Structures are given as structure tokens and as C-alpha cells.
Amino acid sequence: xxxxxxxxxxxxxxxxxxxxxxxxxxxxxxxxxxxxxxxxxxxxxxxxxxxxxxxxxxxxxxxxxxxxxxxxxxxxxxxxxxxxxxxxxxxxxxxxxxxxxxxxxxxxxxxxxxxxxxxxxxxxxxxxxxxxxx
Length: 134
Known about the structure:
There is one protein chain. This protein is mostly helical. It has helices at 2-22, 46-53, 59-70, 81-89, 104-112, and strands at 79-80, 115-119, 122-125. A three-stranded antiparallel beta sheet has the order 1-3-2. A hairpin with a 2-residue loop joins strand 2 (115-119) and strand 3. The longest helix has 21 residues, at 2-22.
């Protein structure tokens, strides 16, 4: 009997998680957003991650993508700007970032609502950061 209750609870939680990840949930709340989006592989090294997912992205979208890799896709994890800038500037090849880091990228990403910053030089993903793929 206990196993049946346990299985039912697990199934209910999985259905809620699927609905949240796949966007089938009617409610849109920051507390319910997925921590690990299903379509991105955060285990890839940063160069492969950028090469795989940043095709034809603008600078602000690339900033959000790189921030998401460092934060492993988790909303609210604070990352220092110097970390993102250092990683970015190691990937200026044509098939990766294409150009050096520019401070307008995080500003525009923040304006779009994909990221936020509570302290100077510290950024975190917002719940709607996956909009960069739209």
C-alpha cells in the first residue's frame, strides 16, 4: 500500500515537472519555472555549448546563453560579470562569439528582462531567460 502511494506521488510530481518544462502549464510563475531546461546540455564545455546553441545570436543573447552555462540554467544564481567577460574573451573566434565582450550586452539583456542584477557587476538569470531562443 505504501509503495502505491509513493508511486502515485512520484507520478504526480513528474507530470507537474513535465508541464513546467514543456510549457504546458497554464500558470506562469517564477516559482514554478524549470531549473534545468530540457533542451540544453549544460554538461558540455563552454566552447561546445556556445558553438551548439549561439548560432546567429546577438551579443545580448550570447551573454544570456553564456550566463546560463555558468549558472547551469538555474534561475537566481549570482554570477560575477568578470567571470562572464573572461570566458567570453577566450572565445572570440568566428564560429563562437565572433567579437570581444561589450558592456552593452548585459545592459540590453537586462532591458529585455532575461537577466537581472541586484548588485553592481553581479548578474543572474530570470525565469523567462529561455526567450532568447524565440
